[in-house]
Amino acid sequence: MSEYDADVIVAGAGFSGLSAADALVSAGFDVIVLEARDRVGGRVEAMAFADGVVMDTGGQFICDEMPNVMALARRFELPLAETPLEGAFLIQPQSFAGTGSSFAEAGRIRARANRIDPRDPAIAGLTAGEWLGRQSDPPGAKASYQAMVEGLWCRPVGEIPLWYLIDNDRRTISNGNELQYFAEGTIHAAATALAATLGQRLRLDTPVAGIVRKKDSVAVTTGKGDVLTARQVLIAVPPVMASRIAHEPALPEPLAGALAAWKSGTVIKVLVRYERPFWRDRGLSGMIMWRDTLGLFACDVSSIKAVALVVFVGGPLAVEWSGKGRAFIEVEIRRRLVEALGAEATDVTGLMIRDWVDDPWSGGGYSDVIAGLRSYDAEDILRAGVPPVHFASSELAPSFPAYIEGAIIAGREAAERVIAARQSAVATGASGS
Fold first, then answer.
1. What angle do CA 16, 185, 42 make, to 5 degrees?
2. Which of 56, 155, 225, 405 has its C-alpha lying 20 to 30 A from 187's C-alpha?
């Protein structure tokens, strides 16, 4: 009988942890996956309306340029719907139109920023907000860019290092439309299907509280007080969540500092159902961007199953609205949709709110963001880990960071590091990793 409970213990059953476990099991490793929630998927989840229609309330969109998540959709035969994008992009309030506040203006500022070398000493210690303040663009264009940043990265523009924004943006390598598809049966169904292949290797409602690194093994203490041993451990949760796990001995200072460099994004997602996509009668796409309230966006996610708009509330706005409660959020969303789309927007047939702010297991949003102005090597340090303890999360992906695609890539790359470490240990005759 083995002295270990498993070859590898994976902490976290989001797409990073599930993808890593899938690769490790395929390589012949005995794996246990510990998940703190009562479900899998992490920042990807699904909820049902009263009529039984299920929609994604977390990460949702994918595109052809994301080969790993597209392969997963094919593997589990998930039907994909093309995101309805035909028609005009609506700027709200419309009084902002023609004042340099268009999406194209924001895109030009974004492209200008991305031409800067992230390691240029001239921008060291500079936040994206400070850089934006130095630009000569019209106020409306700057507001558009700020809204874009805070809506996508879900943190205040004054907190995000400019170098990180540029580097992160460059790694989102899509040349097309990142909103190209969503899964009619939810993309969360892919996480559920992937988890099903693990069988009893997966344990829900089992958070990791502490990790003890020993000479020939790693001991993992769960929130239930159980202790499991393995040759290696893979922490597949966001950096902020990973920083809350106790370690003995203490993590090396560079690694502890790398974990401390991050802050969680903050976002609220609202799904609003209607009988029909009435906005198309006016030639509108359903894409709405509010300029008087930074970080507020809407998009059409109608399919054969349901007609719906999804509204995203990101960054500081999400924190503000979350503090005012769900009743306020619903009233405010309804009011703004009526102002943007007319009286027919009052005929809501269903509304569902997912407030991710202060979520106990994901920190508040779809992704953590580096807030350390000079934490240039935080990602590299986390990827290196402190074997036999390794790290994986979508934030660490070399491409599509903070997307489902990035989570899958990061999980598989971490699995390769685990496999390589074990092969090295066997080659040198060591009993541990």
1. 25
2. 155
Architecture of domain 86-175+267-355: Alpha-Beta Complex (3.90)
Cα separations (Å) of 325 from 268, 331, 359?
A: 11, 10, 14
Spell out the domain ranges in the chain.
6-81+182-262+371-427, 86-175+267-355
- Count the residues in the chain: 433
Cite the beta strand spans of 117-237 per DSSP E: 181-183, 202-203, 208-213, 218-222, 227-235
DSSP assignment of 328-355: HHHHHHHHHHHHHH-GGGG--SEEEEEE
